[in-house]
Design brief:
The chain is α+β, with helices and mostly antiparallel strands. It has helices spanning about 40-50, 100-110, 120-125, 130-135, 165-170, 180-185, and strands at about 1-5, 20-25, 55, 60-65, 75, 80-85, 145-150, 155. The protein has a domain at about 55-185: Alpha-Beta Complex (Dipeptide-binding Protein, domain 1), CATH 3.90.76.10. Helices cover about 20% and strands about 20% of the residues. The strands form three sheets. A four-stranded antiparallel beta sheet has the order 5-6-8-7. Strands 1-2 form a two-stranded antiparallel sheet. β7 and β8 form a beta hairpin.
């Protein structure tokens, strides 16, 4: 696969823009669905078009920094509650064309649990979300442990004190927002086809 990209603009006396060519012996693993992405090459492609809650800066690989989030998520003293505050004004690309909200991150994490999406790490990092088992088994229409007090706040309520791990995992592509009103029709059937119709939010 060959991937090329170009950009323009400049500032501060530094040359910006140009062309990047990436030559690999592999290909993206089936689709660009952020909920499905699992391998390194998948992540490279996803991070070029999606904004997860947290991202790693090239100058700081020790701890992820807020990306979609306005600040690093806070974890309660008992380790069971993670609170995420989102930035204002980040928008989905066409055809959605609206501001990203906490409901979009909620749906993104919920669909990570759907067998039809095929997420490879959700049961490792977010399995302690209250209500996730009932949702995964089709006994509930949403994960009760994910709440949105307002359009810029998402709260993750957990059954065990694993909030720190859950917060760190918000740097994975599976936390990138997905607009339910657009994606739900692709999230039907045996296998989701959202990856063929993904809507960008970044970088």
């Amino acid at each position: 696969m060959v991937l090329t990209a170009c950009g323009g603009g400049g500032g501060g006396g530094k040359k910006r823009g140009g062309t990047l060519t990436v030559v690999t012996s592999g290909d993206v693993d089936d689709k660009l669905d952020p909920g499905y992405s699992y391998y390194q090459l998948d992540f490279i492609y996803n991070y070029a078009v999606e904004r997860p809650v947290l991202s790693y800066k090239p100058t700081d690989l020790e701890k992820a920094s807020p990306d979609l989030a306005a600040s690093y998520p806070t974890v309660s003293k008992d380790g069971k509650t993670v609170t995420i505050k989102l930035k204002h004004g980040i928008k989905f690309a066409p055809p959605v064309n609206r501001e990203v909200t906490s409901a979009d991150v909620k749906y993104a994490i919920e669909r990570d649990f759907q067998p039809r999406v095929g997420n490879g790490y959700v049961n490792l990092y977010w399995a302690d979300l209250i209500g996730s088992t009932d949702y995964k088994n089709g006994k509930a229409s949403e994960i009760t442990g994910l709440t949105t007090p307002d359009k810029y706040t998402l709260v993750m309520n957990r059954s065990r004190p694993t909030g720190t791990v859950a917060a760190q995992a918000l740097a994975l592509p599976g936390s990138a927002p997905v607009p339910k009103e657009y994606a739900a029709k692709y999230d039907k059937g045996a296998t989701s086809t959202y990856g063929q119709h993904v809507v960008a939010t970044g970088p």
